[in-house]
Design a protein that fits this description.
heterodimer; A: 113 residues; mainly beta; 6-stranded mixed beta sheet; 5-stranded antiparallel beta sheet; 11 strands; 0% helix; B: 113 residues; 7-stranded mixed beta sheet; 4-stranded antiparallel beta sheet; 50% strand
Amino acid sequence: QQQVKQSPQSLIVQKGGISIINCAYENTAFDYFPWYQQFPGKGPALLIAIRPDVSEKKEGRFTISFNKSAKQFSLHIMDSQPGDSATYFCAAKGLSGYNKLIFGAGTRLAVHP
Amino acid sequence: EPEVTQTPSHQVTQMGQEVILRCVPISNHLYFYWYRQILGQKVEFLVSFYNNEISEKSEIFDDQFSVERPDGSNFTLKIRSTKLEDSAMYFCASSGDSQETQYFGPGTRLLVL
């Protein structure tokens, strides 16, 4: 119940295309859903985050879509660029405790020029 | 922009040896975390720390692990007797009053031989 399932494992997109990464969760106590971007040899960096009281959040080329009833959320990267090539992790955090992040398995995105 | 820093960036040690990984969280943050990432796998929560005590720990965080905030700026993770399976990237993270956005350091790559 503490898991966050992420797909696909890897993704290849052409420059200018849309990258879509999906995540699903079971625990309805989760109330905060961030996406992290990680470049090789670096720590995860917060990209964008959403709470379940909204269905969509957009920041520049990055959009989170959230479906509370289906317990799913996704990251859309519009106009994907080679510089977006990285590993993307969805995560979830709950109300209780001191809010550890539960991470998905990660998606390795490659944007080809 | 304030950032989490970690030292060393790489550490090689012999099985059974003690290692101390160091972190300097963002200065006004109150919540501190350690996560680890085995090569090619997802980021896993180890421990959270608030008000000078452990607030939550995972099953991974057994008696071989300990954390400490020895002064007002450093946050350390000690592994008393390293095992081969402790080889991983260890990330420190911190968050402010909101307990939401966790900012990650660049990580320490630990290799146990």
